[in-house]
Amino acid sequence: MKLESKIVHIGVRTDERTGAISTPIYQTASFQHPALGKSTGFDYTRTHNPTRKVLEDGVAALESGAAGFAFASGMAAITAVLMLYQSGDHIITIQDCYGGTYRLLDRVFSKFGLEASYVDGSVENVIQAVKPTTRAVFIETPTNPLMNIVDIAAIAEVCQEKNLNLIVDNTFLTPCFQRPLELGADIVVHSGTKYLAGHNDLLCGLVIAKDAALAEKIQFIQNSTGSVLSPSDSWLLIRGIKTLSIRMQRHDENALRVARWLQDHPRVLQVYYPGLSCHCGKEIHDKQASGYGGMVSFTVDDTQLVPSILEKVKLIQFAESLGGVETLITFPARQTHADIPADIRNNLGITDSLLRLSVGIEDVTDIISDLKQALEG
Prior knowledge:
Elements: H1 3-8, H2 50-62, E1 67-71, H3 74-82, E2 90-94, H4 99-108, E3 115-119, H5 123-129, E4 134-140, H6 152-161, E5 165-169, H7 174-177, E6 187-190, E7 205-209, H8 212-225, H9 231-241, H10 244-263, E8 268-272, H11 282-288, E9 295-300, H12 305-312, E10 317-318, E11 328-330, H13 342-348, E12 354-358, H14 364-376
Parallel strand pairs: 2-3, 2-4, 4-5, 5-6, 10-11
Antiparallel strand pairs: 1-7, 6-7, 8-9, 9-12, 11-12
Helix pairs in contact: 2-9, 12-14
């Protein structure tokens, strides 16, 4: 079955007793035991719930993994993955990672003795950063918000040679466009809030493990810490995923047109989008992904223009988050990446003149018209 069909059919006819096309919401905390020492496979919803299981099995299949796990948020999902490691362990991650990931490593897990190093994502620098205590490499590609590309297969080869886990945040591209486990990664994480849910109305996170041994460890953490996705939210995510393929196609088409338009605007200095022929990572991206996604970042020629744009946009919403059907614009230096020290942000290029667009599925001419009036009005 093609991926597009698998996406649509997540949750179809999972209730054999009734033949319901849509997966029921099992809104229950507890399940009756048939007899002493016997179980239906469901005892307590924190451990397993039928609605959540349909979701978890579905996303595992889409990412070609052994098992999937649904959490209450994307950061809860990343937290669970980092809990695979212990005091004294070392993690390598990319220097322009999502601000929430940086905050979690720098201000939470550092207190428990987990060390992190930040590199540019090149194979050479990853190798140089490896220590005897290194246990994992955690990457995004494309990165947030600078859209840098990391070679998943090349990093996976390094990790396999050195017995390290490779963790990939696949939020921006989803399994529609990129499947890191098939390229050698061990764990995939998603902020399901974004493209998977797709409607700016649901908070959730997902982890997919490549093999049964890792899956068993993650399941233990999920059950022990309890930050699971509720049955009703699991159902909402199943419903959102059903349109993922057609939404991603439209995001991709719109974003490329917006990026090309921005490229030609006199007030725009630089556009970050891997679909542009000038993008330095395009060759690697095209080797490992089948689409470019809906995220576009750009810098303007005057920092004073930024507040004006944010005030003047009408169709486009000035809001955090991304991946929904509506186009959103964000100011990373003050919002998503504010916890990264200013000198580090500026050195990376996350400056006060950088804006990030999550290009929605509206008519693209309306999106461009709104950008035009905001930039020129």
